[in-house]
Design brief:
- By secondary structure, the chain is mostly helical.
- The protein has one domain.
- Helix content is 52%, strand content 0%.
- Helix 1 runs antiparallel to helix 2.
- The chain is rod-shaped and about 70 Å long.
Length: 66
């Protein structure tokens, strides 16, 4: 869930930093390339290291009497 939120934030930032808007016309493609690169990195990490499945059985901790 956190990865999806971060991906949406990066995608929105990449669109807002695109040099066709007046506020970012002088920036060039640097901010868009940076946000796009971070988005690709996030996608790679998400695919390569999937989070553990929530359906796994919880580990039982047994207390021992002394």
């Amino acid at each position: 869930m956190l990865g999806l939120s971060f991906a949406l934030l990066l995608a929105t930032g990449a669109i807002l930093a695109f040099p066709c808007w007046r506020h970012s016309a002088r920036w060039g493609y640097g901010p868009t390339a940076l946000a796009g690169g971070l988005l690709v990195l996030l996608a790679t990490v998400t695919v390569a290291f999937p989070s553990s499945s929530p359906q796994t059985a919880p580990t039982r901790i047994v207390a021992q009497r002394v």
